[in-house]
Design a protein that fits this description.
about 325 residues; 16 helices; mainly alpha; binds heme C; about 0% strand
């Protein structure tokens, strides 16, 4: 009997397996989103009333509503976009309780000094940061911006920064963070970067010719320090293509990370160097004399790049005696 066991198992288990799959196909959310939101509001009897019902009763939110209608979120109300509908209640939760006491006429409400009871909405500003982000993530999965696939493991999410901290959705129709205002937003939490960018040699961030997102992907990446592209070198050679290589004579693997020699945000030294010359080179090399040039006895401990001008690598052999790539030209 024993050797038939596997067969018996296969015969009986197969249909079971198939039915199990059929069950899985009809996966359902553990809790429907709307019921979940009502629970957060604390009242299961709150209902969705729609943007029109919500804002038509009070003028107080006229500017917010107007900006919203001109934003990409407001656009979605038009069915021809075929994208998920976004209205006030998508983020603020069901609103029936908040407008319960209001008359249908906004002028009358103004006269009677009746206001919508905002305490009956989701208290979104006081939710834990992760829950705040979930409000956005229910629509903005990785299909919306691929890098959100790395959001949960990003230093921002892990350090209690939420979508709300950067996206101020009611400041105007703009929902993205504009390149104009970006640096100031980031400096609020990263003052050291602001200080670095004030230094003599700097990437033109303060001149607004560049933005933080040219090098960083703030929603999360596979690289350290939220850097864009696949490698540290790639982050820089995207713009500085002449340093890309590969070269016949490489500077070993030191150029794999440009930050070995450069301070990307700013530096007191020329060319964004993270140490003054020749100390930059002397961190890894000693000075030397030139034994093969007769009569020259001088010990060279400075001006290294006067002779070794091709520190980023070159295809041209050194004219000096050994003929190797000493980065001379
Ligand atoms: C995509 C999400 C989202 C949508 C849609 C949305 N809001 Fe908001 N709302 C927020 C967030 C986040 C905050 C809190 C932070 C802030 O002020 O940006 C907020 C804050 C508010 C505030 C209080 C703060 C303030 O700026 O006065 C009001 C009032 C408000 N929203 C009204 C509305 C109205 C009216 C609509 C529809 C026309 C709407 N919201 C649609 C996300 C949204
Ligand atoms: C009900 C669904 C929904 C919710 C909730 C939602 N969004 Fe959106 N959002 C959209 C859609 C749809 C678009 C337009 C299509 C797109 O760009 O993916 C959009 C676009 C955006 C854009 C792009 C704007 C542009 O100019 O390209 C930003 C930024 C954004 N949303 C931020 C947020 C933030 C922050 C939250 C949370 C406070 C949020 N969204 C909540 C559906 C939603
Ligand atoms: C640290 C600040 C910061 C946080 C936190 C943040 N964003 Fe952004 N987001 C930005 C900036 C800056 C841009 C503009 C990127 C650009 O212009 O390339 C942006 C752009 C976007 C866009 C438009 C993407 C596109 O490619 O057009 C969407 C959608 C978006 N963010 C959604 C979210 C959501 C959802 C969250 C929370 C899970 C979030 N953001 C958290 C700063 C932030
Ligand atoms: C609300 C505060 C806040 C804002 C706004 C903010 N950040 Fe951050 N950021 C943090 C915190 C907290 C961390 C994690 C702790 C740390 O490394 O400083 C972090 C981490 C980072 C890191 C990774 C540091 C590392 O060591 O891995 C980068 C890069 C970064 N932020 C860039 C930005 C950029 C660019 C912006 C603007 C678009 C921005 N941040 C806006 C709070 C913020
Ligand atoms: C030219 C590319 C570039 C630009 C532009 C840039 N960064 Fe960076 N940033 C880097 C690199 C590279 C690192 C990693 C440095 C390292 O590993 O030593 C870094 C590191 C960081 C860190 C981690 C802390 C640190 O100093 O190591 C923060 C925070 C940060 N950047 C914020 C910003 C902000 C905010 C802006 C815009 C004002 C910005 N960066 C613009 C390339 C850039
Ligand atoms: C989005 C394009 C862009 C990226 C990405 C970029 N840079 Fe630059 N870089 C510039 C621009 C623009 C200048 C300024 C050129 C000028 O002022 O003539 C510059 C200047 C420099 C300089 C010379 C500074 C000086 O004082 O003359 C160095 C060194 C440098 N970048 C290194 C880097 C490194 C290292 C990285 C990667 C961490 C990087 N860059 C990423 C655009 C970029
Ligand atoms: C071994 C140190 C070292 C490394 C690593 C390094 N650099 Fe440089 N870089 C220098 C020095 C030194 C200068 C100044 C050149 C001079 O004085 O002639 C410089 C100058 C520059 C300049 C401005 C002048 C020019 O040649 O255009 C740019 C841009 C630059 N480097 C980009 C990069 C990039 C991108 C990487 C990474 C692929 C990188 N550097 C890696 C040492 C280095
Ligand atoms: C982070 C360490 C580091 C720094 C900083 C550095 N180098 Fe190098 N350098 C190396 C390594 C590693 C090698 C390859 C090992 C070897 O051949 O000795 C090398 C090789 C060289 C060579 C010999 C190349 C050959 O083919 O024989 C020269 C010349 C050189 N470096 C010059 C410089 C100059 C000039 C600077 C300053 C602008 C500098 N290096 C900064 C690590 C560094
Ligand atoms: C006057 C020109 C000159 C100056 C200045 C100079 N070098 Fe050289 N360096 C050379 C020549 C020439 C060689 C030998 C090349 C050869 O043999 O092919 C060389 C060789 C080297 C080598 C390769 C040595 C080896 O054993 O293969 C290194 C590393 C080096 N120099 C680093 C430096 C550093 C660091 C500085 C600055 C402190 C510096 N050099 C200053 C001309 C110079």
């Amino acid at each position: 009997m024993q050797r038939f066991l596997p067969v018996v198992f296969a015969v009986f288990a197969f249909p079971l397996f198939v039915t199990a799959c059929a069950e899985l196909k009809e996966s359902r959310p553990i809790l429907p989103v709307r019921a979940y939101e009502r629970m957060i509001v604390g009242r299961l009897d709150a209902e969705y009333v729609g943007t029109d019902n919500c804002v038509a009763k009070c003028h107080k939110h006229d500017k917010i509503t107007d900006d919203f209608l001109h934003s990409i979120h407001g656009e979605q109300i038009k069915p021809e976009t075929r994208l998920p509908l976004v209205n006030c209640e998508s983020c603020h939760g069901p609103g029936s309780l908040a407008i319960d006491e209001l008359e249908n006429n906004p002028e009358l409400n103004d006269q009677l000094k009746k206001k919508c009871d905002t305490t009956k909405f989701l208290d979104i500003m006081n939710l834990p940061p992760q829950a705040q982000s979930l409000i956005c993530l229910k629509c903005h999965a990785a299909a919306s911006i691929p890098t959100l696939a790395h959001w949960n493991a990003s230093p921002h999410a892990l350090n209690d920064v939420s979508c709300f901290d950067c996206h101020k959705l009611h400041q105007g129709p703009q929902q993205k963070v504009s390149h104009e205002e970006m640096a100031e937003l980031c400096y609020g939490c990263h003052p050291e970067v602001k200080a670095e960018n004030q230094l003599f040699s700097h990437h033109p961030l303060r001149e607004k010719k560049m933005a933080c997102v040219d090098c960083h992907e703030v929603h999360g990446t596979t690289q350290e320090k939220l850097l864009r592209e696949n490698t540290p070198k790639g982050t820089c050679t995207k713009c500085h293509m002449d340093k890309q290589g590969p070269f016949v004579f490489e500077h070993a693997d030191v150029t794999e990370n440009c930050a070995n020699c450069h301070a990307p945000h700013g530096s007191v030294n020329n060319n964004l160097l993270n140490a003054a010359m020749p100390f930059l080179c002397l961190q890894c090399h000693g000075g030397h004399t030139l034994i093969n040039i007769p009569g020259v006895k001088q010990l060279f401990t400075n001006r290294c790049t006067d002779c070794h001008s091709q520190v980023h690598g070159t295809d041209i052999p050194s004219p000096a005696t050994t003929g190797s790539g000493t980065f001379r030209q």
